[in-house]
């Protein structure tokens, strides 16, 4: 249940105070991190994340997309939006909302509703949204809104090879840094990442949390891999639609609707959309052009940026930390 408008503002003040008391350190980019319950959060998202956790009321029809930053969030948002809304918006149609708006505007981050609760109280905004509501989070599973487990809403997690996540993150942070500022040197950033210090990291803890939940509650939490979405886009999108309770009909399959979803959401198509070229994400000092979300979109791009020794080091750490979780990224 939502607290009222002033309640939301109060809730944020409370969490701002808590956030300010948490351990802090320099991050991989220009934003400092705060540590909460074993995970590192970009400082500006700490209080909103905690406010979301305590006040967001999930509906059984909600869909929550969860990712580590740079795991393909933008792609997942586009795909899920296209799948869920295909009855109203034909994926092959030329007037699809994804051809006019950023996936980040169509599927907002939950924390974004809480970043300025005083000027735009999140409660009414969220309550007025028609079902099914689609949201995204970078939050670790343990910090998801308390109302999510047990609500019946669906959670879709997209996992990506941590080496590609690191390389993608590095490019992204370099791209979005404000003029005149510097991000830490590459080797230092890599060591931090291997030590578990990354936005919403450690990466292994983030993945394991959702993996274990997908095993325990497969009807409510789905664990996807970026690499599988690349390899078998149609098969993955069909499984996704089934999980979301809106499987493709035989007629849709025969007429190529899953393929149309994939084509609509492809990197090249998304990159060509005006809103993804000129639009801006975020606010104030932490705003940047939407173009930063679209780079190469390849599996294994890490090979062009980190040495075999570095790759072995990170793979070894991830494998070791995932031991016992039942999740293995080896060989993928
Ligand atoms: P690279 O930097 O490796 O190219 P996020 O959306 O979580 O910020 O992740 C960004 C990564 O996803 C970037 O990876 C980006 O190029 C890739 N990406 C964005 N849109 C994509 C799409 N439609 N298909 C495949 N990859 C996509």
UniProtKB/TrEMBL annotation:
Its EC number is 2.8.2.-. It holds the Pfam family Sulfotransfer_1. Coiled coil: none annotated. Residues 60-326 form the Sulfotransferase domain. GO terms for molecular function: sulfotransferase activity. InterPro entries: P-loop_NTPase, Sulfotransferase_dom. Keywords: Transferase. It comes from the Eukaryota. Belongs to the sulfotransferase 1 family. This is Sulfotransferase.
